[in-house]
Amino acid sequence: MTVMTLTGGAHAADNVTVALDWTPNTNHIGLYVAKAEGFYDKAGLDVDILPYSDTSSGTLVSNGIAGFGIAGPIAVITQRTAGADIKAVYAIVQHETGRLVFNADREDIQSPKDLDGKVFAGFGGIWNKIVRDMIINDGGDGDFETVTLGTSAYEALANGQVDFTLDIATWEGVNAALEGQEQRSFTYSDYGVPGQQTTMIISSDAYLNDNPETARSFLAATLEGYRWAAENPDKAADILMEANPSVLTNAALVHGSMEALVDGRYLIAEDGTIGTIDPKRFNALGAYLTEAGVLQDESGATISDAPDFTPYFSNDYLPE
């Protein structure tokens, strides 16, 4: 195991609060490992992981209720463009975990253009645009029916009530396999949609400016939590479940998800990269969202020219 010296600038028992983007799952595993294995204690930090609520992590961070949070880059870009004080500071996954998925026995679906005229179990927002672009880029018309179902989309797909949906390969995809649901999928970036580092840790300029050493200590300890989890996936899965016994009751799913994250080189990339945000991919996603017409400024007006995305993220608080 690689041992990293944690930044020592934080005072003893500095309090750090983290807001989740969803109920606890393997995307959050480095936080729980860092708590359980004492990485935060060694860094002089008392870290409180807030229970998930309907208030977005970006809202909690931008309003100073939490120093850090978990969010996707689409949320970071849309909320910061609209005036929220949020900044991405750590990429939890190094590759896109999202995908377009459908039942494996659908011989009538061989590429995205075959989705024309079919029923999409959607989630609102930018996701319809992403699906439409994939179809059009494959030579189709981008004409499909959408029913917004949220998390019930996966049951609807399994029952054949809808034709396709989007999921996270390392969670819903694992669960489908465990339940014997054979699926096939299309990857966004294969059809002209920028691939993302799907899940990130965010903070705010206000917090980072006031607490730079605490931020560095927190991210160094958190990075070690994710590294430890990648090197000890079964033990890490047990730690996550022990911390959240009422939420995580499916041990096979949690262990299977960790296996998928490790085998897919999501937490630590093939070249050993961990935590680092890729500016090229972040900027490409920002340009895509601008072109899609989904970004609005503080007044609510849609912007047509891409802003400078440099202030939206930073690798400066990661360990060297």
From TrEMBL:
Catalytic activity: N(6)-(pyridoxal phosphate)-L-lysyl-[4-amino-5-hydroxymethyl-2-methylpyrimidine phosphate synthase] + L-histidyl-[4-amino-5-hydroxymethyl-2-methylpyrimidine phosphate synthase] + 2 Fe(3+) + 4 H2O = L-lysyl-[4-amino-5-hydroxymethyl-2-methylpyrimidine phosphate synthase] + (2S)-2-amino-5-hydroxy-4-oxopentanoyl-[4-amino-5-hydroxymethyl-2-methylpyrimidine phosphate synthase] + 4-amino-2-methyl-5-(phosphooxymethyl)pyrimidine + 3-oxopropanoate + 2 Fe(2+) + 2 H(+)
Organism placement in taxonomy: Bacteria, Pseudomonadati, Pseudomonadota, Alphaproteobacteria, Hyphomicrobiales
Name of this chain's protein: Thiamine pyrimidine synthase
Pfam families, per database record: NMT1
Its biological purpose: Responsible for the formation of the pyrimidine heterocycle in the thiamine biosynthesis pathway. Catalyzes the formation of hydroxymethylpyrimidine phosphate (HMP-P) from histidine and pyridoxal phosphate (PLP). The protein uses PLP and the active site histidine to form HMP-P, generating an inactive enzyme. The enzyme can only undergo a single turnover, which suggests it is a suicide enzyme.
Family in the record: Belongs to the NMT1/THI5 family.
A single MF term (Gene Ontology): transferase activity
Segments forming a coiled coil: none
GO-annotated biological processes: thiamine biosynthetic process
Functional pathway: Cofactor biosynthesis; thiamine diphosphate biosynthesis
